[in-house]
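> forwarded from #structure-qc
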């Protein structure tokens, strides 16, 4: 996020009487802090790819916000949680993108965020486009590789995401391409 540009845009939107919301991975907590200090944010959707991913074990450098994602994401979370509790931030949610291989992290993050609203969002593995592949692969080989990847890593179904949600023991919103968004708790959709 370019802090000054984002703050300027938020000021302009507020000046027009609009609400301001952002979806972020939380890597720039200072930007979120400044927006909240100036009362420029109405909603934050903090987006995790189902875990605190990043390079938090690496030594910090001048670009440490990129090298220490977990620390910054958790700092952003605490800033937003505090502002939400004080009603400075009107809406706050955690969005977890759900894949088969990172289902285990969802319970950990659900406990960490406590009662903050949680969204389980259907993830989709991206397959490289042909222009991104090495020149030594043919179009036929690319199409076969893409077909196999899609078979192996298809998105979780709504029922599979519901089974994950059942383990959390809390109300969640579930987003999928097939049905859009539903509210879900203890086997009941609304």
């Amino acid at each position: 996020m370019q802090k000054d540009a984002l703050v300027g845009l938020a000021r302009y939107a507020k000046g027009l009487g609009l609400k301001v919301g952002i979806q972020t991975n939380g890597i720039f907590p200072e930007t979120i802090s400044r927006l909240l200090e100036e009362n420029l944010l109405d909603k934050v959707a903090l987006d995790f790819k189902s875990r605190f991913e990043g390079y938090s074990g690496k030594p910090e450098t001048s670009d440490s916000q990129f090298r220490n994602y977990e620390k910054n994401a958790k700092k952003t979370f605490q800033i937003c949680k505090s502002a939400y509790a004080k009603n400075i931030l009107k809406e706050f949610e955690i969005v977890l993108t759900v894949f088969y291989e990172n289902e285990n992290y969802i319970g950990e993050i659900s406990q960490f965020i406590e009662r903050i609203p949680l969204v389980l969002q259907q993830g989709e593995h991206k397959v490289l486009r042909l222009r991104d592949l090495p020149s030594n692969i043919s179009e036929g080989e690319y199409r076969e590789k893409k077909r196999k990847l899609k078979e192996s890593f298809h998105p979780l179904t709504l029922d599979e995401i519901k089974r994950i949600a059942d383990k959390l023991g809390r109300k969640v919103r579930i987003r999928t391409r097939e049905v859009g968004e539903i509210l879900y708790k203890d086997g009941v959709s609304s």
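QC bot note: The two ends are 35 Å apart (CA to CA). Confidence is low (pLDDT under 50) at residues 54-62.
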